[in-house]
Design brief:
heterodimer, A: 400 residues, alpha+beta, Butyryl-CoA Dehydrogenase, subunit A, domain 2, 3 domains, four-stranded antiparallel beta sheet, 8 strands, B: 378 residues, Butyryl-Coa Dehydrogenase, subunit A, domain 1, Butyryl-CoA Dehydrogenase, subunit A, domain 3, 51% helix
Chain lengths: 400, 378
């Protein structure tokens, strides 16, 4: 065991830092620093820059166009990405459907879909949850019935993040209802959203933003070749994917960046007010969060090391999901406290490029901290709610 | 000791409850919150006609002689209705200062109009660099012959966009956080040099940034004595703190009821999620938090009604309790509602947001706990 980085690893860190300081679109970083939402074009633009650099998919093996990085390299990259306050990769392609396709898909599917994920030429979204199937995902009702050379798909998917921008959706759909276990009749199917019968309706979240959607399918024809792997095995594939999603969900690097930013914020005197560092009650909370973060960081590193030695992330990845999301929400609440009254103004128009920062209500303060606090309530709900994660640990780890 | 409401108080609670049930459902609330002024002037008139705006004023001032207990009765019901009409700003804040410090002429001109629902008013108690310390007033007022000249910036002024009268604490002597040297001015929002930037607040209410740049007002607009405004300000903020705690208890109780109801109807794994013991215990904890908060709220209201040294401790205690319990109940209500809990469509998210805002108003839980911790037995 050794906690220090090697010379090579330090060199890699410098390389990544330089990338974010020079090659990465700086206007996008500025937007991030000013809490201005990114457009679809912004996302596509920076993905292409990363792709050109050979970093279209940090977590993929080289043979599919990924980086083939070691766990430590991935860790360093995520760290630098967060440090630069750069946006995260669009996870639906790079972290979710991509790995499923290169693990379970056929050669034709790999060639057809993977390159466009790397360049973000195809924007993917996720079709798992349904109005009646949330935590109990296996009760999903979307049907994909075989009709000659295609499936006829009917049903509704919900909480579809950024589905309004998506070209394709990967779905868990029921291909067989006549099975002993509900999980057995579920298949993993790729669907082109740009066709008749697919419609997207927005769901507005509590912060007033349009981030998620309902996606409706009415007699949508999907070629049989869009089935990934074997029919009826979708649940197994989906579970693997969720475990991948859960490791990413820990958000260690982002939490680390947010905490160090909060420390910096507490040291500053804003508008003549005494710096928060004089408030020991508050500083103790930051310190406690930092300890929890360190524990989480090393739990994640242990998981990554075990994945690197050839094991798939197991049910213990649920720990990362629970601890990571709780920590994130804890940090959000600290920002809320730090902003005081200036967490309260809800002035959405001031988060745009044309709006001068010094004209903002609560200028100099973290005025969108309440929006982040509200929006992040979702993190303990999505990706399998934290209650479900606890069930997984109880059953599969502790054998209860 | 008597922990029950009297007949008049019970009627007051019933009448507001009935109004909300009949005329103020969630969709109606959303419509009012989304309108240009952010509330319904008609509903405000109704409040005045029904006497709800007169509850905590003396009979001499045209009120019903109510006190803190009556105030929490009104506020709890307004909380359950998630009411956006500016009761806190007009009645509790502006009215609170006026009833304590205004002279007869000012009461007749302003307080009667507030009680009658004819004048929109507020109290500008926040300054950007002061945090929650109301004595930390940087806005200045300098005497200039028969008038006063004010300069400064007031932040998060509740109802600031609609207010025609803004009660402004300003420093007339001393500095920093001196509690002496603060004077109160009743300023017409249209006065030259006063600018108002009105905006929506995260909880569906409205607030404003108010800048004062060489605002000149007549001496008649000074409320109370020069340099001696702090006591009225502080007592008013204490009332307002109690008021939002009562509102929070109303919201917490409603959120708990809604969560229990939702859990009975939401079926996953073939059974209502209410059948899971892990969730049952959490809902029991929500319920317990509500009941504990309600008990403390009643104690605080009664203690504050008696006045004296215990009143401040009671105010800090209830705000601390509601800060901690409110956050917990709000977050749990959203979590147990799952994805539905974070949608704009459901009232749960809006109740949670108001609860969050109350958590920050007049000081967060830690701020109040620090003050309780610093208390020394006399």
């Amino acid at each position: 065991m050794n906690v220090t980085f090697t010379e090579e690893e330090l060199a890699f860190r410098r390389e990544v830092r330089t990338f974010f300081e020079t090659e990465f679109p700086q206007d996008i970083l500025q937007k991030q620093n000013r809490a201005i939402p990114l457009t679809r074009d912004d996302m596509v633009r920076w993905h292409k820059v990363a792709y050109e650099r050979g970093w279209g998919a940090p977590n993929w093996p080289k043979e599919y166009g990924g980086t083939g990085w070691s766990p430590v390299q991935k860790y360093i990259f995520a760290d630098e990405q967060a440090r630069a306050n750069a946006p995260g990769y669009l996870s639906f392609g790079v972290s979710m459907v991509g790995p499923i396709i290169y693990t379970f898909g056929n050669e034709e599917q790999k060639q057809r879909f993977l390159p466009d994920i790397l360049k973000l030429d195809t924007w993917w979204c996720q079709g798992y949850s349904e109005p009646g199937a949330g935590s109990d995902l296996a009760s999903l009702k979307m049907r994909a019935d075989r009709h000659g050379d295609h499936y006829l798909v009917n049903g509704t998917k919900t909480w579809t993040t950024l589905g309004q921008y998506a070209d394709w959706i990967f779905c868990l759909a029921r291909t067989n209802s006549d099975v002993a276990r509900r999980q057995e009749g579920i298949s993993f199917i790729l669907i082109d959203m740009n066709q008749p019968g697919v419609s997207v309706t927005p769901i507005i979240l509590l912060d007033g933003e349009h981030e998620v959607n309902e996606v409706h399918f009415e007699d949508v024809k999907v070629p049989l070749e869009n089935l990934v792997g074997e029919e009826g095995k979708g649940w197994t594939y989906g579970k693997v994917l969720l475990q991948h999603e859960r490791t990413g969900i820990a958000g260690v690097a982002v939490s680390k960046f947010q905490l160090s930013r909060l420390r910096a914020l507490s040291e500053r005197s804003i508008r003549g007010a005494a710096p928060l560092t004089g408030n020991s009650t508050f500083m103790r909370k930051i310190a406690a969060a930092e300890v929890e973060l360190k524990a989480l960081e090393y739990t994640e590193l242990r998981t990554l090391a075990s994945v690197a030695s050839g094991k798939a992330p197991g049910p213990e990845s649920s720990i990362l999901k629970i601890a990571g999301t709780e920590l994130r929400q804890q940090i959000d609440a600290l920002y809320l406290e730090a902003s005081g009254y200036y967490a309260l103004p809800y002035v959405r128009e001031q988060y745009s490029v044309d709006f001068a920062d010094d004209e903002r209500v609560g200028e100099g303060l973290d005025t969108n901290s309440s929006m982040v606090y509200f929006n992040d309530r979702k993190v303990s709900i999505f990706g399998g709610s934290n209650e479900i994660q606890k069930n997984i640990i109880a059953k599969h780890v502790l054998g209860l | 000791m008597d922990l029950s409401f009297n007949e008049v108080q019970t009627m007051l609670a019933d009448s507001i409850e009935k109004f909300i049930a009949n005329d103020y459902d969630f969709d109606t609330r959303q419509k009012y919150a989304g309108s240009a002024v952010g509330y319904s002037p008609e509903v405000w008139q109704t409040f005045a006609e029904l006497g709800w705006t007169a509850v905590n004023f003396s009979e001499e001032d045209g009120g019903f002689d109510g006190g803190p207990v009556d105030l929490i009765i009104v506020m709890e019901q307004l909380g359950r209705g998630l009411v956006v009409e500016p009761y806190l700003a007009n009645v509790v804040l502006a009215g609170g200062v006026l009833k304590r410090a205004a002279n007869q002429a000012q009461k007749e001109q302003w307080l009667q109009a507030v009680i009658g629902g004819e004048l929109q008013a507020t109290l500008a108690f926040v300054e950007p660099s002061a945090g929650y310390d109301i004595e930390n007033v940087a806005t200045t007022a300098v005497r200039d012959g028969d008038s006063w000249k004010l300069n400064g910036h007031k932040g998060y002024v509740l109802n600031g966009g609609s207010a025609e009268l803004i009660v402004v604490p300003a420093r007339t002597s001393g500095g920093g956080s001196d509690s002496s040297g603060i004077s109160l001015f009743g300023i017409d929002a249209k006065t030259v040099g006063l600018s108002v930037r009105d905006y929506a607040s995260i909880d569906g209410q409205r607030a404003a940034e108010v800048s004062l740049s060489n605002v000149v007002v007549d001496a008649e607009r000074l409320i109370g004595n020069v340099d001696e405004g702090f006591e009225a300000l502080s007592d008013t903020i204490a009332d307002a703190t109690l008021a939002v705690c009562a509102e929070a208890v109303g919201i917490m109780t409603l959120l708990t009821e809604k969560t229990v109801e939702y859990s009975k109807n939401r079926v996953q794994f073939g059974v209502p999620i209410s059948s899971f013991q892990a969730l049952q215990h959490r809902m029991v904890e929500m319920y317990t938090a509500c009941e504990q908060s309600r008990s403390l709220l009643m104690w605080a209201a009664m203690t504050m009604a008696d006045g004296g040294a215990g009143a401040t401790q009671a105010m800090h205690s209830i705000k601390y309790q509601v800060g901690v319990a409110g956050k917990r109940v709000g977050e749990e209500a959203v979590q147990i509602h799952g994805g539905m809990g974070v949608t704009w469509e459901l009232d749960v998210a809006h109740l949670f947001k108001r609860l969050t805002a109350i958590g920050l108003l007049f000081g967060g839980a830690d701020w109040h706990l620090d003050r309780l911790a610093a208390r020394r037995e006399p």
